[in-house]
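A reminder from the course coordinator: this example appears on the midterm review sheet, so study it carefully.

Given structure:
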């Protein structure tokens, strides 16, 4: 069975940092783009960062560029998101996602409907 097991998140003060992890299993890890989308109330789901496992190419959403870093531990089939300088507008449910590397990762990051597998969401709340 496909599993994307996310951990991390919670309540963070503005200006603080968070680290999310996503442990993947049940599919060919190296053939996928893996990362996070987030969705705030009343807003469309948006790509945060994604990483192409095969070659390390990355996508960062405009709203997190310069504040987010995605990394991967291939031995553990786990992807990590480090976000710094958090803002209240970063408050959202963050979903780990995996999409087979069939399109430009820049396109996939803007196209949540392409995602093949979703993990359970984890709520991140940034207090001002």
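Designed residues:
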């Amino acid at each position: 069975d496909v599993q994307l097991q996310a951990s991390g998140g919670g309540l963070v003060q503005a200006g603080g940092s968070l680290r999310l992890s996503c442990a993947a299993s049940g599919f060919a890890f190296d053939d996928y783009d893996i990362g996070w989308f987030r969705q705030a109330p009343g807003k469309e789901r948006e790509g945060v960062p994604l990483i192409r496992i095969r070659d390390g190419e990355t996508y960062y959403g405009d709203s997190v560029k310069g504040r987010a870093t995605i990394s991967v531990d291939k031995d553990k089939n786990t992807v990590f998101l480090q976000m710094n300088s958090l803002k209240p507008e970063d408050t959202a449910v963050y979903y780990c996602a995996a999409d087979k590397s069939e399109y430009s990762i820049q396109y996939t990051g803007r196209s949540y409907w392409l995602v093949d597998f979703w993990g359970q969401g984890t709520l991140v709340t940034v207090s001002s």
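Residues 72 and 79 are 4 Å apart (CA to CA). The beta strands are 3-7, 10-13, 18-25, 32-39, 46-52, 58-60, 68-73, 78-83, 92-100, 117-127.
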